[in-house]
Each structure stands twice: as C-alpha cells, then as structure tokens.
Write a structure and sequence with these properties.
Layout: H1 2-25, H2 29-32, H3 40-58, E1 64-67, E2 78-81, H4 86-93, H5 96-100, E3 103-105, E4 115-117, H6 121-131, H7 150-159
Antiparallel strand pairs: 1-2, 3-4
Length: about 160
C-alpha cells in the first residue's frame, strides 16, 4: 500500500508540473489572437530614442538660468546653463508618454522595429483599397484603423 501511495503522489506531482508547463507554454488569449506586447527592452529602446530626440531639440537653447532665492538679493544667484540643467531633463521627459502613442505596430516586421512611426505597409495597402472603393472588413470600424493599437497603449502603460 505504501508503494501505491508514493506512486500516486509521483503521478500527482507530474500532473501538476505538466499542467504548469502547458499554461506557461501557451500564450494568453491576446497572444493567441496575434497580439504580441513589447518587452522591456523594446520599451526602453523606444523611450530612449524619444528622449534623445527631445534632448536634441532642447539642446539648441543657449539660455542661462539663475537658480536660488534670497530675501535681500545680496547673495548672487547661481547661474546654470540650460543645456546642463535638471529643468531641461524634466521638460524633455514631460511629454514622452504622448509621443509613444504616435507609434504604430508594423506586424510585417519581427524585431524591435515593429514599433515605428508611420503607417504600416499593410494599412497603407488597405487604405489604398478603401480609397479605390473596395469594401474591406477587418472586424473593426474604419475610424479605429488609425488609432493606437493595444500593443502601443500597453507600451505606454509599461513606461508609466
């Protein structure tokens, strides 16, 4: 009887492991429908690209900031170049989340370039067909075609 119980315990253990592996191996309902979310590296790459672009825009300003305060203005205020200021970094980070929503998913690509600005080749073709009068039914209304996809909105929440 003791061997039988240990055999049953072994079977239960194997069943638990197999069930766990099956759950891990199969994607969630989104992955089964073709949705592939951005991983941390892809989010970081896009955010760093946007931050770099924003810092290049604000780096052209030659202002000098006077930092500090005093009641009698006897002490001179500390002067800092805007290029090297914390204010520049804060202003650059301010609207990056909204910039992420300008990206589109390019399902025809497999690597991190699948997140890029501009319309994907697939949607360019579909818009061209609609412009020619062809009825295209994707299961979503035409006015939602140009809205950010679930992958893009999820990427924005990953950054926040």
């Amino acid at each position: 009887m003791n061997k039988y119980n240990s055999f049953l315990n072994l079977l239960r253990f194997l069943l638990v492991i197999l069930t766990t592996l099956v759950r891990l191996g199969s994607g969630g309902p989104e992955e089964n429908e073709g949705v592939k979310y951005a991983n941390k590296c892809e989010v970081c790459k896009i955010v760093s690209h946007e931050l770099q672009a924003r810092l290049e825009e604000t780096g052209k300003v030659q202002e000098v900031l006077e930092i500090g305060y005093s009641l009698d203005d006897v002490k001179p205020k500390k002067k800092t170049q805007y290029k090297k200021s914390e204010l520049r970094l804060v202003e650059s980070l301010e609207n990056i989340c909204d910039k992420i929503l300008e990206y589109n998913i390019h399902k025809e690509r497999e690597d991190s370039t699948r997140f890029a600005r501009g319309m994907s080749q697939t949607f360019k073709t579909l818009h061209g067909l609609v412009d020619k009068g062809v009825k295209v039914d994707l299961g979503i209304p035409l006015e939602l075609w140009d809205k950010p996809s679930v992958e893009i909105t999820k990427m924005k929440t990953q950054f926040q």
